[in-house]
Amino acid sequence: xxxxxxxxxxxxxxxxxxxxxxxxxxxxxxxxxxxxxxxxxxxxxxxxxxxxxxxxxxxxxxxxxxxxxxxxxxxxxxxxxxxxxxxxxxxxxxxxxxxxxxxxxxxxxxxxxxxxxxxxxxxxxxxxxxxxxxxxxxxxxxxxxxxxxxxxxxxxxxxxxxxxxxxxxxxxxxxxxxxxxxxxxxxxxxxxxxxxxxxxxxxxxxxxxxxxxxxxxxxxxxxxxxxxxxxxxxxxxxxxx
Length: 241
What we know:
globular, about 50% helix, four-stranded mixed beta sheet, two-stranded parallel ribbon
């Protein structure tokens, strides 16, 4: 991030999901169209907030870990994604590209109003050409809370609860309760020579759903677990008998 805005401020997941649902519902009303899969977040933000998305060489300007940013150029709002995620050049990066665009949208919805007020107070808004938001890749616990919030927003926009559950039931009509994938994940770790808690490793169900929603497998697996459609823990129910 370009500025250390509310770095330790917590925001409940339910509030972030409500903000994402508000954006999706506003798009439905304005466009008079239902959501289709995969969610086209570029179309949604352009329709609602007059954003455009641009591929830029952010890493040359801001460092090799820069992946996304929000700029104001001549009064227009621009979400920038680094060229290493350009899906036209790197089709395998499509899921991460979509997530990055949605992540920046999360910053715009959740954090930008306060950031803009801060810039105006500093009298920098009209002349500063630095990005309002600059996002970098982070590993594990090093990720700031504000970035985790934008990640959650992206997850909720690209994988809305209603659509995920509906698609899950279509793909797994006979599944009762959460699908336990613990043994499958442990088998993958064994194949890769990883320790019991090392990863990430992915289950086939998450891989299949990720293709439908055009997102990376890891956030889809997290979303499925959050919605209690899969269970990644050992199944202890047989120990009762």
